[in-house]
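so im writing up the methods section and need the 50S ribosomal protein L27 record in one place, dumping it here so i stop losing it
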Amino acid sequence: MYETVQFIHSYWAYLVLFMLLIASFNAIIGFAANKEYSATNFRIALFTLIVSHIQLLIGIVLYFSTPYFSGWAQEGMGGVMKDSVLRLYNVEHPLVMIIAIALITIGYSKHKKKLTSRPKFKMLAIFYGFALVAMLSRIPWTAWFN
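--- predicted struct ---
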C-alpha cells in the first residue's frame, strides 16, 4: 500500500505545482495588467484549490503509512530532530505543506469576498504566490530526481 500511495502522492504533486504556478502567474498578470476577472480565472483558482486539497488527503494517508513515521517511536523527538532526513519527512515537509495549503484556502476565500477584479487578483497573487514559495522550499528534491 505504501508504494502505491507514494506513487500517487509523488505524481499528483506535479499537477499541484503546475496548477499553482499557472494560478499564481495568472493572478500576477491579471493584477499587473489590470485585467477583468473572468470565469476562467475563477476556475483556475478553484481547480488549484481542489487539487491541493486532494494532495493533502493523499499526503495524510502517506504520512501514517510511511516507514519514516516509525522514526517517532524508534528515535523519539530528539532523534527525529537531529536526523535531517527524518526531520524533513516527519516535520518540515508535512508542516510547511499544510501551511501552504492553508494559504491557498485563505487566498481563495478572501478573493471571493472582493467585488472588483484588481483586489481579487491581488489576493490570489499574494496567497498563492506565498504558497508556491513555501511548497518549493520543502519538496524533497533528492527523492524527486531519483
